[in-house]
Amino acid sequence: MSRARVAILVSGRGSNMAALIDAAAEPDFPAEIVAVISNRPTAGALAIAQRAGIATAVVDHKAFPSREAFDAELDRALRRFAPDIVCLAGFMRMLTDGFIAGWAGRMINIHPALLPSFKGLDTHARALAAGVKLHGCTVHVVTPEMDSGPIIAQAAVPVLDGDDEGALADRVLAAEHRLYPRALRLWATGASRLVDGRVVTESAEPAPGPYIWP
């Protein structure tokens, strides 16, 4: 089986990256993680990747005078590994339109909310303030407009009475660790693909029933 080559961009501790690495360690997983690149030299994700035997690189955004200069070097670093797919996993940098265009249809991201609701930061606090009963996470194709690309997959979790931001974040993060490998599998095999600006998915699984809470 030919496996898709995947590079992961990270900024922090790398828990979603670790979930992808664990999934890719399975012999039937259709993608291999060939590189992890961080914009922060002290990111904990780098040590996790190194222990897994994965090549790492650092492109420190603080060393560049502009977003364009940083993105140009990040692009060069990525292309050295020749990835088929780029996964953003807690990568906390806004990418320029030119960089995104260079990886159009090949770069995906996980966001801690049920898009299109709660784009941007502080999603859990905003969900609690809004009083929603379901929250969750989304894997989507990266496009120039932040958190607005075509949706590949989503996972929902209940918002419980008494939840604070930390408790809700933990519940969503557990869902992220299950969702991202599933979405990458769909994208790497072509079971999910872009058609006229939307993601369509071929699946032999029956459609699930509604998830109702409470």
TrEMBL record:
Domain annotation Formyl transferase N-terminal: ranges: 5-184
UniProt-listed Pfam families: Formyl_trans_N
Per the record, the domain of life is: Bacteria
Please name the CDD domains in this protein's record.
FMT_core_GART
Q: State the top-level EC class.
A: transferase
* Any single GO BP term: 'de novo' IMP biosynthetic process
Site positions for Raises pKa of active site His? D147
Entry GO CC: cytosol
Name the catalysed reactions.
Answer: N(1)-(5-phospho-beta-D-ribosyl)glycinamide + (6R)-10-formyltetrahydrofolate = N(2)-formyl-N(1)-(5-phospho-beta-D-ribosyl)glycinamide + (6S)-5,6,7,8-tetrahydrofolate + H(+)
Q: Where does (6R)-10-formyltetrahydrofolate bind?
A: R67, N109
InterPro entries assigned? Formyl_transf_N, Formyl_transf_N_sf, GART
Pathway the protein takes part in: Purine metabolism; IMP biosynthesis via de novo pathway; N(2)-formyl-N(1)-(5-phospho-D-ribosyl)glycinamide from N(1)-(5-phospho-D-ribosyl)glycinamide (10-formyl THF route): step 1/1
The answer, when asked if Cell division is one of the entry's keywords, is no
Binding of N(1)-(5-phospho-beta-D-ribosyl)glycinamide, residues: G14, S15, N16
**Active site (UniProt):** H111
Q: Which UniProt keywords apply?
A: Purine biosynthesis, Transferase
* EC numbers: 2.1.2.2
Gene Ontology molecular function: any one: phosphoribosylglycinamide formyltransferase activity
NCBIfam families reported for this sequence: PurN
Similarity section: Belongs to the GART family.
State what this protein does: Catalyzes the transfer of a formyl group from 10-formyltetrahydrofolate to 5-phospho-ribosyl-glycinamide (GAR), producing 5-phospho-ribosyl-N-formylglycinamide (FGAR) and tetrahydrofolate.
Record-given protein name = Phosphoribosylglycinamide formyltransferase
Organism, scientific name: Methylopila turkensis
Record gene name: purN
